[in-house]
Write a structure and sequence with these properties.
disordered N terminus; 261 residues; Heat Shock Protein 90; 2 domains; alpha+beta; 17% strand
């Protein structure tokens, strides 16, 4: 009669099985379990790769019709200010705002799952910031101040724009009314240091250490991937990003010299 003995590994025991046979059975069991354990991470990684590719394709396809919705709703609002009643204009504005929210969520997902090689070139910080600010939807009562200094940065401009769009948009949303966003920059012999400070209420202390974690968000419509993508992009540039309160300030540190990425 065989009996199963429960252990980390298990084997069949019987009074007439020799010690040598027991060792062989254990060895065979260990080999099967070891092969299984080695395959599990590989299979898990393959599944994640496929999920990432599928997510990238779906979100990319969703982005194009959203762009049409945003552009046409904006155009109709501008061209129909004196033709449509107030309620109709408010409904158009709602369509545009909700489409923009969805568009940003899609951008967060795409930026998180797509990691093409960096294209490093020398760029002016002022040029990057001016382009970003022009493309961000901000209220008239939010003032954005760019740095007095204009350091040159070795970076992938498309990726760094993603970082600044996320940080400045988050700051605008945090202010939620009248306020200011101040961007400062300074250089050391080794680094360019950029600080983005806003006059909003700040981040809850219990959330401060979690803001760069994937899928962490305090927003009802957030993906929790925006700041995680920012951290990923900055670290791929061999830099660092951190945050502190009083006032809320995100600090980016980037190397002044190009390194192998």
């Amino acid at each position: 009669m065989y009996k199963i003995v429960q252990r980390t590994e298990f084997w069949l025991t019987r009074s007439n099985i020799t010690k040598k046979q027991k060792i062989q059975v254990i060895g065979a069991s260990d080999s099967v379990m070891s092969d299984s354990r080695q395959k599990e991470p590989e299979q898990g990684h393959d599944r994640l790769v496929h999920i990432g590719e599928l997510t990238s394709r779906i979100t990319h396809d969703m982005r194009n019709p959203l762009t049409v919705i945003i552009n046409y709703s904006t155009m109709i609002q501008k061209n129909s200010k004196n033709k449509l009643d107030k309620k109709s204009l408010e409904q158009l504005a709602l369509i545009e705002n909700e489409a923009r929210k969805m568009y940003r969520q899609i951008e967060d997902v795409l930026n998180y799952v797509k990691l093409p090689p960096l294209k490093l070139q020398n760029h002016s910080l002022h040029d990057i910031l001016k382009k970003v600010i022009e493309n961000i939807q901000t209220a008239d009562d939010v003032e954005i101040q760019i740095p007095k200094t204009n350091p040159q940065i070795i970076c992938d401009i498309d990726k760094l724009e993603i970082v600044f769009v996320n940080l400045i948009t988050n700051a605008v949303e945090a202010i939620s009314g009248e306020g200011s966003i101040t961007i400062n920059a300074k250089t050391t012999p080794d680094d360019v240091i950029i600080e983005i400070e806003d006059s909003g209420p700040g981040i809850a202390e219990e959330d401060l250490a979690k803001v760069f974690e994937p899928l962490f968000t305090t927003k009802q419509s957030g993906t929790g991937l925006g700041l995680s993508s920012c951290k990923n992009i900055i670290e791929r540039h061999r830099g660092t990003i951190s945050v502190k309160n009083n006032p809320t300030t995100f600090t980016i540190k980037l190397p002044r010299r190009e390194s192998t990425v």
